[in-house]
Specification:
- β3 and β4 form a beta hairpin.
- By secondary structure, the protein is an alpha/beta fold.
- The chain contains nine helices and ten strands.
- Strands 1, 2, 3, 4, 5, 6, 7, 8, 9 and 10 form a ten-stranded mixed sheet that branches.
- The protein is globular.
- α6 crosses α7, α6 crosses α9 and α7 packs antiparallel against α9.
- The protein has two domains: 189 residues, Spore Coat Polysaccharide Biosynthesis Protein SpsA, Chain A, CATH 3.90.550; 61 residues.
């Protein structure tokens, strides 16, 4: 059954978005807007399910996509991605060539200031090098996605209480559940430059939310990762907030993260 795109969008003209994306595979689109509706259509001989929802939050959106997922493989997608010709075949061929992989992170062209990774070779990924990958790079076997019960956190990301980190938490969960994760140098498309939906500078909310995220990602080691982050990134936030205040805010965030984790256990 090939590849199904899981497209998360917010207040988009779906018809224009489909054309801009160069859609050429089956797709499930969840468009968070001011109406609730469901439509199934064909586009370029492919099945496209469009779900309009009044819900908010990127985690909620992606989980709705996961609930509808079908096909051999799924590829997460944002509404600002433009795919190259033949992207479906590239994904299917890569999984076929590497049956050991349950999940593969693919390359996309991204402007330099937003780039967090670029794969130069096919390789296995481990616990501490998966956090850099955004959702749109992630392709996964649909049966693995379902069997492992992989879902997105609704606490983090656009439209949620805490700024970002939902992709990192999703990948940590996949790793903890023994999903075999690999990186591929295969290029699938590009990201259209746009303003961040969550980053508004190195302000107090940024550091507090980062502390909460570290508690979820690193558990008892969050305190050490906090210190590393403050030291490594000090030149990036210099002039926006002093290190002492940033450090305090991250500590407060870590404490809140631990409280949330305890409540959920």
């Amino acid at each position: 059954m090939g590849l199904t795109l899981l497209v998360s969008s917010l207040n988009k003209d779906v018809n224009k978005m489909i054309e801009d994306m160069h859609l050429d595979s089956d797709a499930i689109i969840v468009n968070q807007c001011d109406t609730d509706s469901l439509e199934e259509r064909e586009y370029n001989s492919h099945k496209v399910k469009v779900i309009c929802s009044k819900s908010r939050g990127v985690g909620v959106n992606r989980n709705m996509c996961i609930d509808e997922a079908y096909g051999d493989y799924v590829l997460f997608c944002d509404d600002d991605i433009v795919y190259d010709d033949g992207y479906e075949k590239k994904v299917v061929d890569e999984f076929t060539s590497h049956p050991e992989a349950d999940m593969i992170m693919f390359n996309f062209n991204v402007c330099e200031e937003r780039r967090t990774y670029y794969n130069t070779e096919y390789k296995k990924l481990g616990r501490y090098n998966i956090g850099r990958y955004p959702a749109y790079s992630i392709a996964v076997k649909t049966d693995v996605l379902k069997e492992k019960g992989l879902k997105y956190s609704t606490l983090f990301g656009g439209g949620a209480k805490y700024s970002n980190g939902e992709d990192s938490i999703f990948l940590k969960d996949a790793y903890d559940k023994k999903v075999a994760m690999y990186a591929s140098p295969v290029l699938l498309g590009s990201e259209t430059p746009s303003e961040s939906t969550w980053f508004s500078g190195f302000n107090e909310k940024f550091f507090f939310d980062r502390g909460v995220l570290f508690a979820f990602l690193y558990g008892k080691s969050a305190w050490l990762w906090r210190l590393r982050f403050i030291l490594v990134k000090k030149d990036m936030f210099k002039g926006e907030i002093d290190r002492k205040n940033a450090n305090r805010l991250m500590k407060d965030g870590i404490r809140e993260g631990y409280r949330l984790l305890q409540e959920n256990n």
